[in-house]
Amino acid sequence: MAARIHGGAGAGAATALSTFNPKKLVAPSRTNLPAARSSKRCIVAAAGSDASKSLRVGHSQKLIANAAVATKAETSATTGTGHELLLFEALQEGLEEEMDRDPHVCVMGEDVGHYGGSYKVTKGLADKFGDLRVLDTPICENAFTGMGIGAAMTGLRPVIEGMNMGFLLLAFNQISNNCGMLHYTSGGQFTIPVVIRGPGGVGRQLGAEHSQRLESYFQSIPGIQMVACSTPYNAKGLMKAAIRSENPVILFEHVLLYNLKEKIPDEEYICNLEEAEMVRPGEHITILTYSRMRYHVMQAAKTLVNKGYDPEVIDIRSLKPFDLYTIGNSVKKTHRVLIVEECMRTGGIGASLTAAINENFHDYLDAPVMCLSSQDVPTPYAGTLEEWTVVQPAQIVTAVEQLCQ
Amino acid sequence: MALSRLSLRSNNPFLKPTATSLPPSTRRHVSTDTTPITIETAAPFTSHQCDAPSRSVSTSSAEILSFFRDMARMRRMEIAADSLYKAKMIRGFCHLYDGQEALAVGMEAAITRRDAIITSYRDHCTFLGRGGELVDAFSELMGRKRGCSDGKGGSMHFYKKDASFYGGHGIVGAQIPLGCGLAFAQKYSKEENVTFVLYGDGAANQGQLFEALNIAALWDLPAILVCENNHYGMGTATWRSAKSPAYFKRGDYVPGLKVDGMDVLAVKQACKFAKEHALKNGPIILEMDTYRYHGHSMSDPGSTYRTRDEVSGVRQVRDPIERVRKLLLSHDIATEKELKDMEKEVRKEVDDAVAQAKECPTPEASELFTNMYVKDCGVESFGADRKELKVTLP
Questions:
Q1: What are the percentages of helix, strand and coil residues in chain B, rounded to 5?
Q2: Which of A190, B35, B42, B108 is the most buried (most CB within 10 A)?
Q3: Are residues A330 and A211 part of one domain?
Q4: What was the ipTM of the complex prediction?
């Protein structure tokens, strides 16, 4: 069964459900599965000889190296013509279109102007829009995040860039207290239409302090929305949606995904901020993921398909609030959930998602929700160690086999 | 002292007493003469990296009288809040501004409602100065729906958007970058307005102040940073918390001015000067030497780190309302009795507002979830074929 990746945002959810035909294929339904609620967790010896290798991924075996980097994502652009670009260019395109459209949109961050942005997302914008709209700030995250929020209180729409998401910890007070809460504590008088964006995540051997995943820290701030982009298509769409939204939005990008190439439509489009993306519809198990782990999951999906499994892969995209509608429908269909994330095990997005699924869809589950997260360690510098802090495709395959036994 | 004594009793249309229940026969005719008079400030300004403004302040009888009235109203409001807190009608934190009224009133006299003000948690009187209603203030303090933030903000979160009053912030110093953001937006929109960013002597040691100052000076933002130096950061005196207590000089490359914050005319002059300066040359720091009679908040008696003699000493010598009273009496703008009557009116005004606020209902339970998000999620989103796609969350 070929993996079908739906490039259209939102359309995927609707079409996947409409093509589900229970009579068509022999899918293991609830009744077919053996002793689903047993706590026995033996590893099923699969038929293929490569199975044992995948269970024990030794250091000798070549790890699937950075599957996400420079992979051409298969995509079906919804219309015939389109243009191919890299993810950071897609972000730039979205940003530029919004700045053209609305003079209130401005960008502020370190080295976003003359330098062009440390990941080139804002390249060329300073020349086009001038220094007042694309502001090079000094290195003071607390102050310039606060400034962006103050400006937003009057009606401007700043896009605040953290050169690395980890630096925004210095601005946590501003993001939590002022950004998230001002709309509420002022009784609705002020809106804070800021976008806070930046790259995070593990992968370029940047060391512990520059490989942080802040989505877990920000997720409990009331009043903000969080989204994570993973393809050029949704990067542009989410950037535009975030800028147009009246709520403060934190857009999480990933250091390793900036050079992804994809063909995106020429026409204007926006992605829904609160919607999850159906990457690959399936029957046996729901795999929820976001950002870079999507590619590890898809890599694992290839292996799984060869072994006869039919995973349904959903890129949740919206980290706060969760799209429980799409997720719920999927759980009701497959009855098994695996969450694959890059956050730490403790208190990460996966932890919250596990709780949410257990609370809302407990009756539909045939097995406990399984969550694969990064290890609770500071990210080491050494390449091999860094690979092991995050979830690898082989581990995903193992986990699916465990859940689907 | 250069001044012109004018015939100060006039039959011009007068300030209507706000207590409309007074019968017509007891309405007082007080002077509303707006002819400019010049009065010298009691103390000179000390400046840093700029020329100090002149000590001669241009004002008028009507204005000085309005100073008295506004300050009396603010003083009464704070004292009423004190009683309400002790009666447990106000809960949580309550930071009172009495003693510092000259700052709020003098600043308002120098600026317009298009200029922005942002301050910290000691914001009741600033809110009033920006045109806030007494009822809204008391309702907010008591957690009623009528409050200026719908009862969801509390004492530390007063806001008034239409008067460019941006609050009301609980975290010490966090409002300073916000204020520079307001100034940035004013510069971006090319309005000829300024932002007054108020903070205290305690907040003056925050790193974000210097970060924001650097940006403001770098980009020539029309931000005026006002340090309300009441000499105590909660329980810690300035000499114990700051190596250099000359807060107006801390900007280094940013000009500064030290002002007697208990003299409402000096405050007015300084703010006027600062506004002109900021619109031309970028940020400036004003250090207002002021004093608070209450403790840091209602939980702090205010006597463990300072003597009662010190407090009463300041009250006798430097009280801002007494100063204005003396000014009014010595210039024959009003008589003793008229001022006492005005104070009685103000007292009644405040009492009425408290009574009205007590009648107001508390917010409904559903209000817990309102104003979390604007439009409660959902931006119009569409694919490349312009089909509108919206997902309804259950």
A1: 40, 15, 45
A2: B108
A3: no
A4: 0.80
